[in-house]
Amino acid sequence: MGNGVVTGIERNWYRHQPYFWYRLTSGHYAGHYIYIAEQVTNLARVGRSVQRGQIIAQYARTGTCMEIGWAVANGRTLAQATTGYKEGQVTAAGRSFARFLASLGVR
């Protein structure tokens, strides 16, 4: 999604599946944190600098499904940190991340 630094990993976040987050270090969204969770494997190590387009995790073939969105510095999802997110809830953080993905050309 952009150049960044992996800032944290929680290996057993939801149903024994991982959660990791990284901080974008360049571009319009520099300073923002992105998380990737569940159904991922082969995670980049904490402290690793990563470049846009570089593989930082792989899709795992088992699990609940992959989740991605904005995070905050301590690793919580932005939705949890700002609204007390409940499963399935539409949030401002989710809408913002959708706009970010659209800016990258994701449909």
Approximately what portion of the residues adopt beta-strand conformation? Answer: 25-35%
Helix content: 10-25%
The main pleated sheet reads as: 5 strands, antiparallel
Structural class: alpha+beta
What does this structure look like?
This protein has about 110 residues and is α+β, with helices and mostly antiparallel strands. It has one domain (about 5-105). The protein has helices at about 80-85, 90-105, and strands at about 5-15, 15-25, 35, 40, 50, 60, 65-70. The strands form two sheets. Strands 5-1-2-3-7 form a five-stranded antiparallel β-sheet. The chain is globular and about 30 Å long. The protein starts with a strand and ends with a helix. The model has no long low-confidence stretch (mean pLDDT about 90).
Topology record:
Layout: E1 4-14, E2 17-24, E3 33-37, E4 40-41, E5 49-50, E6 58-59, E7 67-71, H1 78-83, H2 92-103
Briefly summarize what is shown.
The protein is an alpha+beta fold and 107 residues long. It has helices at 78-83, 92-103; strands at residues 4-14, 17-24, 33-37, 40-41, 49-50, 58-59, 67-71. The protein has one domain.
Descriptive key words:
single chain, 107 residues, alpha+beta, five-stranded antiparallel beta sheet, two-stranded antiparallel sheet, 2 helices, 7 strands, 17% helix, globular
